[in-house]
Amino acid sequence: MPAYDNPLVAELETVRTQALGELDTMSDLTDLDAWRIQYLGRRGALTQVMRGIGQLPPQQRPEVGQVSNDVKAILEAAFDNRVDVLKQKRLATTLAQEQLDVTLPGFPVSLGRLHPTTQILREITGIFADMGFQVYDSREVESDLYNFELLNIPPYHPARDMWDTFYINERVVLRTHTSPGQIRAMQAFHPDPIRVILPGMCYRYEQVTSRHEMMFTQVEGLAVGENITMADLKGVLENFARRLFGDNRRMRFRCSHFPFTEPSVEVDMDCFLCNGEGTGCSICKESGWLEILGAGMVHPQVLRNGGYDPAVYSGFAFGMGPERITMLKYGIDDIRLFFSNDLRFLEQFS
Ligand code: DAH
User: What is the pTM of this model?
Assistant: First the structure.
């Protein structure tokens, strides 16, 4: 060890050598922290040495201050450097341990699927497409004129009670059924023959219950041409029901009334759960029959409103609710499930 005139400078040199020596052997970040406190902390070795400065002759004091600053700077730099080295080392080992193992199975990707209503709509459009029906998109916000008047439902007519309506204003409504699309399709196609279905959302001002929603889908059907008869309507609907519900299904046409068809029918299918037996069946409420749609021959005035001469042309129309049909098909007892986005429900329709 070199001889120093100044005893505190000698001490500082000792501290420096000792601190640097210890630092070199350290491999742990928490040890490093202890080291920093021991040498550079407020009560650390450097400060301790400086405490003796008062005992020195005044001419020796500046040198101590100078050397102490130098040693402090050296120790701080060495400390930072050591921290860096250790961090790098740690990073290198973690990376080595975490090497990508390409043989591990991947994370499962959760696939979305089509909503049950979309699925049934696709099935329905597919069946009607096979019978030559095109899809015609009509608007959801309708005028009173199309939603009611051109369908033979004048203002204040009691028939309006069949549709609890959301009025935007006196002349504009959210369509309560897809039937106004009949007029729009006729006006777009006349005088050509028509075979279209009109799927889409409808809205009614309903008290929401397990059987009624404020919004739901409907699929309207319309065929207009020369010599179209009720036999065509029966044939088309029977083919449809058999393809959707099964080959051996029976259908029943019941007389009914709609302002825009004449004659009008409601169509029932024999209950697929009890095979039409009825006894004890919860789906058909023991009647053996399930109502699936309304239909009829297009009323002459409605044909006229669409631009067709009823003396030359005739047509049939029908309207059904896909949610209701899905409920029948799968025994679902609450229509609200279709709009509640509950995965436990939706995942059953993959
Ligand atoms: N629009 C009727 C409703 O929502 C359903 C309907 C009945 C449509 C008979 C038709 C039809 O095209 O011919 O209650």
Answer: 0.70
